[in-house]
DNA sequence: AGAGCGATGGCCT
DNA sequence: GGCCATCGCTCTA
């Protein structure tokens, strides 16, 4: 089984986001292993008004400034978690938000954690992914290249799916940037990609 | 199918 | 006090 190299993550978040589509996210916990294929992600840049890192380092966002390949987990709306893959070199606050995944291993465990049967809705949103995979602050700022509890593996098949670029979801600043990437036609997305002329 | 809204807590002004 | 990188429920069509 191959794995990502550090250099993969030391690039601009939109590039990393595009190339993470098709990759597999895996978590290991005492309850079991969960894995799934990433089909939707968003890039957040260091000079991006929509990014948590825009106003500089804080207690909450400090993991965003870690080296590429680390993990940034945050609490959103007081009740859910979202998981990001940190990009670029240490000191630069950029990351890729994992928004949707196609469940592969541990589907029963995901269904139990989510309290939901429907495969298509199991991981169709950033907080749903975290709930299904058991991701919370315990893994914030973990190195995805060193951890055995949360990690990424590259796409095995050589086939490249069609990628769509669209506007990011749930933000109020820099709304025009098309920094959301998704696999066209996937039934596992948080929303269909809206293409504006 | 789409709009509205409450839950809930940390962080920023 | 206001604002969230959300979700799932309810109401209207």
Q: Would you write up a description of this structure?
A:
- Strands 1, 2, 3, 4, 5, 6, 7 and 8 form an eight-stranded antiparallel sheet that branches.
- The protein is globular, with a radius of gyration of 15 Å.
- With 197 residues, it is α+β, with helices and mostly antiparallel strands.
- It has five helices and eight strands.
- α3 packs across α5.
- The longest helix is centred in the first third of the chain and has 8 residues, at 13-20.
- It starts with 5 loop residues before the first helix and ends in a 14-residue tail after the last strand.
- Helix content is 16%, strand content 27%.
- It has helices at residues 6-9, 13-20, 107-114, 119-122, 126-133, and strands spanning 24-29, 32-44, 71-76, 80-86, 95-103, 150-153, 163-166, 180-183.
- β1 and β2 form a beta hairpin.
- The protein binds a DNA duplex (13 and 13 nucleotides) through residues 42, 44, 50-52, 55, 58-60, 74-80, 82, 84, 97, 99, 125-128, 131, 168-172, 190.
């Amino acid at each position: 089984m191959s794995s990502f190299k550090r250099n993969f993550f030391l690039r601009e978040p939109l590039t990393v986001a595009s190339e993470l589509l098709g990759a597999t996210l895996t978590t290991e916990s005492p309850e079991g292993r969960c894995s799934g294929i990433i089909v939707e992600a968003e890039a957040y840049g260091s000079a991006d008004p929509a990014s948590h890192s825009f106003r500089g380092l804080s207690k909450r966002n400090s993991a965003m400034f870690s080296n590429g390949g680390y993990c940034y987990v945050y609490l959103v709306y007081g009740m859910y978690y979202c998981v990001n893959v940190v990009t670029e070199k240490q000191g630069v606050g950029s990351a890729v938000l994992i928004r949707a995944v196609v469940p592969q291993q541990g589907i029963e465990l995901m269904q139990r954690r989510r309290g939901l049967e429907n495969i298509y809705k199991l991981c169709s949103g950033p907080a749903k992914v975290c709930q299904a995979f058991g991701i919370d602050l315990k893994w914030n700022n973990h190195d995805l290249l060193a951890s055995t509890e949360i990690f990424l593996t590259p796409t095995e098949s050589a086939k490249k799916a069609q990628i769509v670029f669209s506007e990011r979801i749930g933000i109020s600043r820099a709304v025009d940037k098309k920094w959301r990437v998704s696999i066209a036609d996937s039934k596992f997305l948080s929303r269909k990609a809206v293409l504006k002329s």
